[in-house]
Amino acid sequence: MVPSPTVSGSLRNRLVLALIGGAAVLAILLFFTVRSYAAKVAQQGQDNILVASVASILDAAALREGALEVDIPYAAFSMLSTPSDDRVFYAVFQDGAFMSGYDDLQLSDGPEEEQWTFHTGEVRGERIRQVSARRTLVGLGKQTEIAVALGQTQDALSDTLDQISRNAAYLGLGFFLLTAALSFWVASTTFGQLNRLTMSVTRRGPQDLSPFKKPVPKEMAPLVLSLNSLMGRLDQSLSQSEDFIAEAAHRVRTPLATVRSYAETTLHRVERKENREALRAMVRAIDESSRAAGQLLDHAMITFRADHLEREEIDLVDLTRELVQRLTPIAEMRELSLSLTGEPSVPYSGDPILIQNAVRNMIDNALKYAPADSTVEIDVDTTPGIQITVSDSGPGFPPDEIDMLTRRFERGQNATGTIGSGLGLTIAQDVATAHGGSLVLTNQQKGGACVILSL
Amino acid sequence: MRYLIALILILFPLVGAADDWEDRLIFNEGAKGAHLRVISSTDTVLFAPLIESFVAQYPSISIEYLVSGTADINRRVRATPEAFDVVISSAMDLQLKLANDGFALPVEDVQVPSWAQWHHSLFAFTFEPATIVINRAAFEGQPIPQTRQGLIEALRKRPEEFRGKIGTYDVRQSGLGYLFATQDARASETYWRLMEVIGGLDVRLYCCSGEMINDLADGTIYVAYNVLGSYAEVRTEGKDALEVIFPSDFQTIMMRTAMISEVTQAPEAAEQFIRFLVSQNPATPEGHSPLPFLRSDTDMTERETIGLNPALLTFLDGLKRQKFLSAWENAVIQ
Ligand SMILES: Nc1ncnc2c1ncn2[C@@H]1O[C@H](COP(=O)(O)OP(=O)(O)OP(=O)(O)O)[C@@H](O)[C@H]1O
Ligand SMILES: [Mg+2]
């Protein structure tokens, strides 16, 4: 089982959050910008009307026989009519002295050069917008200044502003929703590419280490590139180690065989008893070494294949039968017979080389440790599970060691004098484990060992 | 019959009344609920039926109906706003100024067209044209003038017959008279020519429509200028001698307006009263009120009603009023 990687945060969430957060900030900014702009425009509108009104009042002022006359035009106030019926306050001053209108209205003083002075204040508990302006009249040797202050409440203005604010809010909200939807879409399409790459990695067979060729977005190219180079290196080192195993097996076994054949030849020529003894011991040791080398390399191969288990559809009965046929000559040399029983056909999906190796080791043990003139029974069955059982009528496993015999290089007391490396059962067990099964060693009641490889 | 009851009712409260009201009447006296003090420029005869049907609908409310002139109403409300709950007047300009100055209590969601209310505080409920009322006898064998110009010509033709026989408002005393005069002056120069003509014929000046029509009816005057149509029609009923003329050159149409005093002690009852007023429909058969109630479907562009807008403040400006009055005096009082 591959350990799941340590996850910290999510790129997708981060992207979506950043986009949505940005959209929210922009939407709020949009709302305030539109509103403040609209407020400015609306205020400008009111100011313009107030200015027009004050201008018409100032225009209507005249000096007649030295006396100031202010004939307020009807239009001056009529133009101040609003949908919200805003209240109107005005005051006319001559040389700073109140003449008529609302005496609670104050002239607001602005900069000298400006003709119009705008001012927002409060009159009679109402917020008003006020415009003040002056005009100097020159008559027969007399100069007088008339000033007009005109104020209006802002009900219509705030109604307009409310409406604009509402619309601006809708605009901002619409913008936000659109952007949010867009950011979700962008995030999912962006990470869709990543997911697709992940899928194609996941779906690959264990032996498929070829580079990815499908087009990917530019930003993902470095990832795919390093993935491809990693797989290239992996592929290379795997084939190297496979080669190495084959090479090593060859290198060790061939010289051993040569040494053995020389030893055998020499044995025939030597006459002296102690020399013959020594040579026999030498041949034995060579056999031991050769066996150990073979088993070690098998074990290494098994370990490698188990790590990259490649299952294929096989028939366990066919596989076992072929093995039995191959081993029959060896069995006959020992005057043992092999008997295959069980189902006529057991289809299974697994690695045939591994299973064959395991079963070969099991049969090999039976041949090694069972007495001559007996029968080794090989049974391929599907009940209770798919299992291959090899049982003999030999002495069986030493009961006090039975739990340790599957360990590496572990041999039983009964193995003394028998050539072996103590890896046979280890290999069988590794194969069982790689296929999700187990290896069980028992002694039969009637005597003899029984090994069950359940898959 | 109802008027009779109204008249009888007048007598009782008047006994103890110290204030110099033109008329003072209490409806539904002794009712347990709110007591509404309505100050109005409308004659009791015209208004009583309306109040009666109101108290019939709201039996717990009693109403004290106080009648005075428009200018006087304006003075009193400004002086003691707490003494009144509802203010009704035909002087739209004075009413609008009261509302603009903050004497009115706003009422939300009153069912009136936007042009018939101002600032949710002033509500129009009638429309009443200014008319010329003549005594037919004086125009025996002569064409009856239909315009102001026609009237000027008729007067110039027989000045001696009309000398001292023409009446109009004294705009210095009457708020409504001032409103009509200023609106006439605004509409046409003919107004000033007419004033000069009637000024030259020793015009009689009146404070109120009622007196003017009384004098007309008994032959003291032959022509009354700018009389309220509503009053004229009530008084001319059954009097063939009088004819009401709606001048065809231009019409000045006033809307009677009502508002609630900002410092009323019975805001709910006052609001009910206002809603009742504006809900009156000229078509209501049982109403029979002589008041020409506003039709909410009236097309305002056709009816040259005086607009309820801040322009009404113009002629109330001290300087402007002085100037207008001196022009008027120059024309009328020679
Ligand atoms: N059929 C059997 N009957 C009795 N003892 C057995 C049998 N098979 C295995 N054993 C015992 O279990 C031990 C471990 O067996 P294993 O196959 O792992 O090693 P090995 O046979 O000694 O060496 P090799 O690696 O060459 O097979 C043996 O040494 C032997 O003592
Ligand atoms: Mg073995």
TrEMBL record, chain A:
Its EC number is 2.7.13.3. Coiled coil: none annotated. InterPro entries: 2CSK_N, HATPase_C_sf, HATPase_dom, His_kinase_dom, HisK_dim/P_dom, HisK_dim/P_sf, Sig_transdc_His_kin-like_C, TCS_sensor_his_kinase. The keyword Transferase applies. Residues 247-455 form the Histidine kinase domain. The keyword Cytoplasm does not apply. GO terms for cellular component: plasma membrane. Gene3D superfamilies: 1.10.287.130, Histidine kinase-like ATPase, C-terminal domain. Keywords: Kinase, Membrane, Phosphoprotein, Transferase, Transmembrane, Transmembrane helix. Pfam families: 2CSK_N, HATPase_c, HisKA. The chain crosses the membrane at residues 15-34, 168-187. It is an enzyme of class 2 (transferase). GO terms for molecular function: phosphorelay sensor kinase activity. It is found in: Membrane. It catalyses: ATP + protein L-histidine = ADP + protein N-phospho-L-histidine. PANTHER family: SENSOR HISTIDINE KINASE YKOH, SENSOR PROTEIN QSEC. This is histidine kinase. The gene is qseC_1.
TrEMBL record, chain B:
InterPro entries: SBP (IPR006059). It comes from the Bacteria. GO terms for cellular component: outer membrane-bounded periplasmic space. The keyword Signal applies. The keyword tRNA processing does not apply. Transmembrane segments: none annotated. Keywords: Signal. SUPFAM superfamilies: Periplasmic binding protein-like II. PANTHER family: PHOSPHOGLYCERATE TRANSPORT REGULATORY PROTEIN PGTC (PTHR30006:SF25), THIAMINE-BINDING PERIPLASMIC PROTEIN-RELATED (PTHR30006). This is Bacterial extracellular solute-binding protein. It comes from Ruegeria meonggei. The lineage of its organism: Bacteria, Pseudomonadati, Pseudomonadota, Alphaproteobacteria, Rhodobacterales.
